[in-house]
Inverse folding.
């Protein structure tokens, strides 16, 4: 299996073999986290720029650690405190960064499609670390790795993705990837938070949490993305939490005893997840974060270390 | 002329048959025990893929000769290569060394020793995992053409080759037979 892409922009573009290559490579790299000396020389002399136009702790830190464990030089560029705050355009900033010869630019932006614009404009490899409501491919990869390690396989598993589907790039990336790998996906949420096109993605839709979580292997709870909402989509947080918040009672009454509870973070405790569930035995939320570093190492090695990707 | 199909390796000569293969490993096992005065504090680390199989065979032989169990680990040196971006897609299969190499005498095991670059990378990879007391090198075939100052401590067979040839070590674990052959790219 050869990696031939310059960029990692979406899960929609990838085929099952490419997704599996990334997940397999990440699984092999996990061991580095348990070493006394967490550093391998694979990307020595390569430069990685984290270009973040949106707030992020987990993803930016995760890419930074991944790059550093691979011996790359990692530079963080955040929009606040930079020339973007002085009015420089997105593409001008990109051109200026390109002039400093990076090998990989990791970009997060609030606009869907921002990473694709960069990929066309820049010669170096681009990794999409989340673009608006569009995609977040490395999150889907780390979710797949987490599920595969817990369940032993992916094909045939049933997954419920619950909550604010409309604003979720995590949901989109996961739906594309999971469908390609032969998993069954149900999306569930109030009708205002389910996008109209969702039927085209080959998923089932449910408007009742209790129905959606029955018999599934994995429940992926999403954060209510109030910063992206223009208002009027839910009556109140309290009502949302009452109908769509996952509690131990609901789990015990409707879900399988071996179900995995996932969440891409940050968790709104008491809204979509009760603290007992977030910290409980079903939860693999911190496992997801740990796997995130391995997944990002795999992505960086394949993009910056492949002959094809450098052409 | 019509475009030629991709070059297929052609078997040119047999270097070791099954019996000779086994004798070579038996001799190496004895030499390892002799040089290290037994198997105490010894560990084998095989280089993926066939080096790991050879390391396991050596460990089995040492159990039979001496009764001692030598731990066997697996080293993947992809992340340590000096030619990572010249080789297409890096294939990362992972390092599995489920024991501490600190203070151990580690015998690094590979199937074919050629330029020495793989061993150079393996030395770096090993030392990143801890500080062994010493590292020794065992190889089934030494085919020459070294590009670095590296020499093996244990050799199954010295085999002068041309650079155009390549040496294929076939093992029951992967190929259904124990045999070493010289192959030449056709075309």
């Amino acid at each position: 299996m050869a990696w031939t892409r310059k960029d990692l922009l979406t899960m929609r573009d990838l085929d099952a073999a490419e997704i599996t290559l990334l997940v397999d490579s990440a699984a092999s790299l996990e061991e580095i986290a348990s070493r006394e000396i967490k550093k391998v020389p694979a990307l020595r002399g390569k430069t990685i720029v984290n270009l973040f136009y949106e707030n992020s702790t987990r993803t930016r830190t995760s890419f930074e650690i991944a790059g550093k464990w691979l011996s790359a030089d990692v530079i963080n560029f955040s929009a606040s405190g930079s020339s973007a705050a002085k009015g420089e355009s997105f593409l001008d900033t990109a051109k200026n960064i390109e002039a400093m010869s990076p090998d990989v630019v990791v970009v997060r932006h609030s606009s869907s499609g921002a990473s694709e614009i960069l990929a066309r404009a820049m010669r170096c490899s681009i990794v999409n670390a989340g673009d608006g409501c569009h995609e977040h491919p490395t999150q889907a990869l780390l979710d797949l790795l987490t599920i595969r390690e817990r369940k032993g396989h992916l094909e045939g598993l049933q997954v419920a993705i619950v909550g604010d589907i409309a604003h979720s790039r995590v949901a989109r990336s996961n739906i594309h990837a999971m469908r390609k790998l032969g998993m069954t996906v149900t999306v569930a949420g109030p009708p205002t938070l389910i996008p109209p096109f969702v039927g085209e993605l080959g998923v089932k839709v449910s408007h009742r949490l209790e129905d959606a979580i029955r018999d599934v292997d994995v429940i992926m709870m999403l954060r209510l993305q109030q910063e992206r909402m223009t208002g009027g989509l839910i009556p109140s947080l309290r009502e949302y939490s009452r109908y769509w918040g996952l509690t131990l009672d609901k789990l015990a009454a409707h879900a399988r005893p071996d179900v995995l509870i996932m969440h891409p973070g940050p968790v709104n405790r008491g809204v979509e997840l009760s603290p007992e569930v977030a910290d409980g035995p079903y939860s693999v939320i911190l496992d997801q974060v740990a796997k995130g570093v391995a997944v990002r190492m795999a992505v960086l090695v394949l993009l910056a270390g492949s002959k094809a990707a450098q052409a | 002329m019509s475009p030629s199909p991709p070059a297929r390796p052609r078997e040119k000569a047999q270097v070791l048959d099954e019996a000779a293969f086994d004798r070579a490993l038996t001799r190496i096992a004895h030499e390892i025990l002799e040089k290290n005065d037994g198997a105490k504090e010894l560990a084998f680390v095989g280089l993926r893929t066939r080096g790991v199989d050879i390391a396991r065979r050596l460990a089995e032989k040492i159990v039979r000769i001496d009764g001692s169990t030598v731990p066997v680990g697996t080293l993947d040196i992809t992340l340590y290569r000096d030619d990572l971006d010249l080789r297409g897609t890096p294939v990362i299969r992972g390092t599995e060394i489920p024991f501490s190499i600190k203070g151990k005498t580690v015998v690094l095991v590979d199937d074919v020793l050629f330029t020495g670059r793989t061993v150079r990378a393996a030395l770096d990879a090993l030392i990143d995992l801890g500080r062994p007391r010493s590292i020794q090198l065992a190889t089934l075939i030494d085919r020459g053409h070294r590009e670095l100052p590296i020499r093996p401590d244990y050799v199954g067979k010295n085999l002068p080759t041309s650079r155009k040839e390549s040496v294929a070590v076939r093992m029951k674990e992967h190929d259904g037979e124990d045999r070493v052959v010289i192959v030449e790219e056709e075309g």
